Amino acid sequence: MPPANRTYRVLPGRRYPPGATVEDDGVNFSVFSRHAVGAELLLYHSASCETPFQIIPLDSKHHHTFFSWHALVVDLPPGTHYTWRMEGPNDPHGHGWRFDSEIELVDPWARAVNVSSWNRWRRQREGVRPHDSPRGIVLAEEYDWEGDQPLRLPTEQSIIYELHVGGFTRHPSSGVRHPGTFDGLVEKIPYLKELGITHVELMPVMAFDEQDVPDQVWDSGLRNYWGYSSFGFFSPHPGFCVTPEQGTHRRELRDMVKALHRAGIGVILDVVFNHTSEGGARGPTMTFKGFGNETFYCLDALDKGIYLDFTGCGNTVNANHPLVTHFILDALEYWVREMHVDGFRFDLASAMARDAEGRPMANPPVLWEIELSDTLAASKIIAEAWDAAGLYQVGSFPGYRWMEWNGRYRDSIRRFVRGDPGMVSEVATRLAGSSDLYEANLRKPINSVNFVTCHDGFTLWDLVSYDRKHNLANREGNRDGTNDNLSWNCGVEGETSDANVLALRRRQAKNLMTLLLLSQGIPMLLAGDEVLRTQQGNNNAWCQDNALSWLDWSLMERERAMLGFVRGLIALRKRHPSLQRRHFFSGQLAPGAEMPDVSWHGTKLDDPDWDDPELRWLAFTLAPVQQDEAILHVLINMDERARVFELPELGSAHWSVAVDTGRASPMDVVAPDDQTRVDAAQQVARARTILVLEAR
Question: Given 162, 183, 384, 545, which residue is catalytic?
């Protein structure tokens, strides 16, 4: 913290690098603002100070180079908080300019931000008050990575676990020292390691505005829980830190990344570059609007006071403007280089494929820059390949290295397991890695991130317990969230004490999880599904920072049977390289092989009967790809009646049952040494049941 009553000498500084950079002589500040005619830098002792201790006016002669405003504050210590004020024309409808010299702005390149002074709704209703904005923090702490580097696990071996940093440990049952923080997640690493996943995919951890919610939601005491409302793309979210007022953001996140890496678990960040927390014309000016509104956002060509909204959140980032592309790439490379993260999942990534006027581009510069960046070359890059305005690019997202959340996979598997007929051909394609989406344009099974559930929608237990969404708690009249859940409640809507219904729901949950972990491509699990967490039918819990969304750790004991089942499935996937293929099946004998890489069957061998419109069952055999690997044979029966399946002959080997979703724990998933041998030439699969057999 700077000494009280001291005024610091100011030199011109330089335009590069952007942000606040600690140097030998002091701190160099630089921001981009193309059309500003003046700037002020405001310095604060701490997050709690009501007024700045020094205001530094910048003149265009000494502190302005090209489109940047800059200053070197001599001997300024780290820990100083700061904001900017920009002076310039205000012409939102003609040129899109929204300069306002009364509004303090947070530096887009700030390495840490503090929101103690920020009250979005007071500003919205009462107007701008002096010094009421989020603040950047000057950081210069040394950090000992102890040799840590981003992990480079082969993509085909990945098993992703999507979680919310706050909700993962905020429930009182978590028992951690600092619930809802990066530190709290560190305490749960042994659980993640025992589960067997290889990567955590963290819902947004870049600084976001928790107050960005509609009026009626805010007035109900709810807030933006999920975090898809970013404004600080270089700063860890202060709400996930133990001591953010001390500027410990980077250290706390780095400690978490390093600890996860020590456990062999990679870190993928869910990032939101499609829109920001500033919203549309009625939204507040926090950062980009005040530095370069016309540059950072897509605006209507005839009236630039209108924000083009392809995200459903009020604005769309003009991601393919050269300066914005550079900003996005700079942020991503920073998180890899300085924070050691292993990859990114891009929210509504198709919005980033649009030009300034909203037209889809064949070769969007920002997406290709991300794909071809040397710094990001080993990072996982995953697209949510659609946006909120109808651009759907699953299977056709620009680029080759991009992985995609495969929404087609989710929908096909849900429909099949709930009992829709005539799905076997479609489901076989999804199980085999979705070659119809990826093979023709030279991509691979590993381009497909397979999922049945994610944060957006029903949990696994709710998917088998509800036919309809129940979102009244969101205070939006149950209008929010999708109506097309492709779910089945097994005969009763919601909670029930009917033992038969509950047994069927558990079997259906196992079926969905089994198919996910038997599919080619990259499986992604939603945190809590392994213990059947419920949101009571809420399929859009974005504003529910409470027990409805939090993970109840007492479920680990109450649902230990399901937890054991999921652990066993993950272990089975890991011991079978045939489930982790980089290339699509050929269905042919490879040189020296004794059987095709895959064989498809119905109840009779080699007779899948693809064209039967009523078919609800399927079987397939996978050849081993390593010498010590077992052959896999999978029987899938989603019919309401039991089916008898022929089994392939093995010669001197024999089949054993590894998985039977119709059995109770611990016989539903069985380690190789404890498996039951099958001596018959046929095997019965009961109604709505999946069996996995191994042969050695």
Answer: 384
Res 597 pLDDT > 70: yes
CATH architecture assignment, domain 10-138: Sandwich (2.60)
Residue 9 and residue 53 in contact, taking contact as beta carbons nearer than 8 Å: no
* Alpha-carbon span 317 to 463, nearest angstrom: 33
Catalytic residue among 183, 210, 347, 530: 347
Residue 459: what are its φ and ψ, rounded to 5°?
A: -70, 170
Question: What sign results for the dihedral spanned by CA atoms 384, 527, 227, 456?
Answer: positive
Do 562 and 530 touch, CB atoms closer than 8 A? yes
The architecture that CATH gives domain 586-695 is Sandwich (2.60)
Q: What is the pLDDT of residues 381-391, one digit of tens each?
A: 999 999 999 99
| Topology (CATH level 3) of domain 158-280+308-578 | TIM Barrel (3.20.20)
Residue type, 333: E
As a whole number, mean pLDDT of residues 131-152 equals 95
Average pLDDT over every residue of 311-321: 98
Residue bearing tokens 């042994």: 190
Q: How do the domains of the chain map onto residue ranges?
A: 10-138, 158-280+308-578, 586-695
Query: What does pTM read for this prediction?
Result: 0.98
Reply yes or no on whether 384 is catalytic: yes
Same topology for domains 10-138 and 158-280+308-578, yes or no? Answer: no
Q: Tell me the two tokens of residue 474.
A: 């969101």
Instruction: Give ∠ CA 200-406-392 in degrees, rounded to 5.
Output: 125
- Give the model's confidence band at 2: pLDDT under 50 very low, under 70 low, under 90 confident, else very high: low
Task: Give yes or no: 609 in active site.
Answer: no
